[in-house]
Design a protein that fits this description.
The protein contains five helices and eight strands; from the N terminus they run ββαββααββαββα. With 144 residues, the chain is of the alpha+beta class. Belongs to the MraZ family.
Length: 144
């Protein structure tokens, strides 16, 4: 199970080491893609396939499906880890997520988000300030 937060640093050659705890949970080739709210998504091949199956379960005629595929799949890259567990972040994804040197890996069960550290601290602050409201909305949805 993918849980926890881990800090990392991007090298001068745009390499980023995947934390050992995260690597141990991934089984096959890695995919990195655009994520929501300005982060990157990191998944293994099995989890990527499951995500794509969910998205493609709806008809291609729906604009939201096409746009989701463009966003996720169009921005996806297969990456290989070197002997130190590092991969090169494609420049288009580094620019999209506005990654500087310091990053945070946020593991959320089925995928890992890669955030610029400052952006993550801002997002986390927003989440902390609205956690009770979010829980309340989830309960309302659950009761329906």
């Amino acid at each position: 199970m993918l849980i926890g937060e881990y800090e990392g640093k991007i090298t001068e050659k745009n390499r980023l080491a995947v934390p050992a705890r995260v690597r141990s949970e991934f089984k096959s080739g890695l995919i990195v893609s655009r994520g929501y709210e300005g982060c990157l998504l990191l998944l293994d091949g099995t989890r990527w396939k499951q995500l794509i199956e969910v998205v493609t379960a709806k008809p291609l005629l729906q604009m939201s499906i096409r746009d989701t595929m463009r966003f996720l799949v169009g921005g996806a890259h297969q990456v290989e880890l070197d002997a130190q567990g590092r991969f090169v972040i494609p420049s288009s994804l580094k620019d999209y997520a506005e990654l500087d040197q310091d990053v945070v890996f946020v593991s959320v069960l089925d995928w890992v988000e890669i955030w610029d550290r400052q952006r993550w601290l801002t997002k986390l602050s927003d989440l902390a300030g609205s956690a009770s409201d979010i829980a309340e909305r989830l309960m309302q949805d659950y009761e329906k």
